[in-house]
Design a protein that fits this description.
Elements (H helix, E strand, L loop, with lengths): L20 E14 L18 E8 L3 H4 L1 E3 L4 E3 L7 E6 L2 H13 L9 E9 L11 E8 L10
Antiparallel strand pairs: 1-2, 1-6, 2-5, 3-4, 6-7
Amino acid sequence: MEDLFGAERRLGLKFPNIGDEYKGCKILGYTREQQKDMESGDPITWDDGTPKMMVVIELEVPGIIEKGDYDRFTKTWSQVEDDEGKRFLFCQGGMFTAAKNCAKETGIRIPPVGGLLDVKHTAVGKASNPKHNPPKRYEITWSVAAPEDPFAV
């Protein structure tokens, strides 16, 4: 899906409420990217100038076309024009921690392309700064896809 200027619009998975989850998402690919400031869009670095990185996982999400996309300002879900059912999981902060925990628990160090991913918003922590939202906590599991049975009918 492209915007007016030809840039790809990457819809992220949304977790407005504790308990929100997506199951059976097919992993289409992943990249490592530098994080960007939410307001300015400028790349973010650590104090020493090292880029702050995140992992972005591209997913095919069952049932997402009917659900649409969540608008955090109006707090409503709405349909997306030309929706192909693809969403992105931006792994930074609590989501990055959940992905690291998943890799450690499963022994699968990288998201297995073609495999399946489940992700759930499990809790909210305490904000370290009153100007910031409290951090969200997540659980992620991924698995390698089973090979197709050549004898299946």
